[in-house]
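Hi there. Long-time user, first ticket. I'm pasting a complex I've been working with (about 222 residues overall). I'd like to know whether the download I got is complete or cut off, because the file seemed smaller than I expected. Thanks.
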Amino acid sequence: AQRVTQPEKLLSVFKGAPVELKCNYSYSGSPELFWYVQYSRQRLQLLLRHISRESIKGFTADLNKGETSFHLKKPFAQEEDSAMYYCALSGFSFNKFYFGSGTKLNVKP
Amino acid sequence: EAQVTQNPRYLITVTGKKLTVTCSQNMNHEYMSWYRQDPGLGLRQIYYSMNVEVTDKGDVPEGYKVSRKEKRNFPLILESPSPNQTSLYFCASSAQGGNQPQHFGDGTRLSIL
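Hi, the file is complete. Here it is re-exported in full:
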């Protein structure tokens, strides 16, 4: 069965510290992975997707098929990064989506 | 302004009373989808639509219906709501399937008593 696991409900770091939000997945086909973010009082929005291999707001994520992981990383966290982060999985047809339960990132000053 | 609009934003109703949550997008997007969000479970996909008159089940379709008669609208119908459908619901749309960024609505909080 398809599944996305985000083991941490809450992650607190200090400003300037590195941050890594974990995401592990289970999928029988070739996965497409995404990170979505919801800032306070804003709508859920796409942060990045593995297929484009881009860095958004200093965040990167590498798809590791061997470990079935897609961890989100940033070398120096900023207070404005505080938000709810969701890892999401789809297949090659990009129709069905599976989201993780989310990790709340709290960046302390 | 490009956006996805859901109505109502909040609704308290009783078991068995049919209700419809509307979703409209003004971006001419082909793909639309409904999710429900429950504590500890994240977002779970209910139904999606790749285009007009093309709909399919997501992960948790039981108890829900959808229709896609026009490109811009994708209503979610609960024919006989039950308390286990109390949840926060999100509608989303994207240009060409989920590969393009999904634009989400503000959410609809439903309470079924």
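A couple of notes from our side: The CA atoms of residues 57 and 96 of chain A lie 27 Å apart. Chain A touches chain B through 23 residues (CB under 8 Å).
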